[in-house]
Amino acid sequence: MKMRYRLLFAGASVFAFGIAPSLVTAQKPVGNHRKHKDSSEPNTLSEKEKKEGWKLLFDGKSTENFRGVYKEAFPEAGWQVKEGVLTHLKSTGGESVSGGDIVTINEYSSFEFQTDFKVTEGANSGIKYLVTESMPRPQGSAIGLEFQILDDAKHPDAKLGRDGNRTIGSLYDLIPAARGKLVKPIGEWNKACVYVKGNHVEHWLNGKKTLEYDRSSKAFKDAVAMSKFKDKPGFGEWPKGHILLQDHGDEVQFRNIKIREIK
User: Fold this and answer.
1) Which single residue of 80, 90, 171, 188 could bond 175 by disulfide (Cβ 3.0 to 4.6 Å)?
2) Which residues of 192-214 are buried (b: 16+ CB within 10 A; e: fewer)?
3) pTM attached to this predicted model
């Protein structure tokens, strides 16, 4: 018989099937920092944010905090900075001939990462974290845990995977986002937040928690064993890694990309 696990979010609970209860920890959110308002101007930090340790990864002009994955420099094609927005341009030839994924220059272990993102109709992308550039280089996108970005209504990936674990806000192919998640319409800005403190991880979408889990738990390892990453030794258990914005061939926009390290 399949076991149930519990997802806690925004004061409510959602039940799904397939993972043991220990996958989701009972740890309470630390304060309400994942709900704080941005400064009025995009790609800037308020004095409060500066005191809290936030740093901009994108100031609306420069890509100096990113480079191409497995590369030394930022891609020459496929990505565009215009009017304070970092855009992955739609590719007509798929991932292999477009700009490719980009990763942060630095690696992070415990952190809170936030970004605004806007998808086009039918788009697929993702925010990967704790990404390691392992060798030999894998085919396709670099390996990491992924906050899924998707047009759930139009992209076929939303119906694949298990129990909706490839929909927006999910831990891709591992844990589905909670039902009742808040998603803005196509063409409007959404806010993603990934919170990692040691092995405890949370996904937030537009101020509501979509899931949380413990990377060290048996239940997480069981979820990996049922996923497409089952043949990746130690998947998701890395102590640190880069943050990656994915090139999946579709147009996706980002702004207000920021991070604060958790001591």
Assistant:
1) 171
2) bbbbbeebbbbbbbbebbbbbbb
3) 0.85
Given a contact cutoff of 8 angstroms between Cβ atoms, the answer to whether 250 and 120 are in contact is yes
Chain-centre distance for alpha carbon 194: 6
The pLDDT tens digits of the residues spanning 241-260 come to 999 999 988 999 999 999 99
Interval 126-152 mean pLDDT: 91
Which long-range contacts link 88-93 to residues 24+ away (Cβ below 8 Å)?
A: 88/125, 88/245, 88/247, 88/250, 88/251, 88/252, 88/253, 89/251, 90/120, 90/249, 90/250, 90/251, 91/247, 91/249, 91/250, 93/249
Q: Which residues pair with 245 in a beta bridge?
A: 102, 127
C-alpha distances (whole Å) from 23 to each of 58, 63, 185, 201, 207 are 33, 36, 31, 11, 22
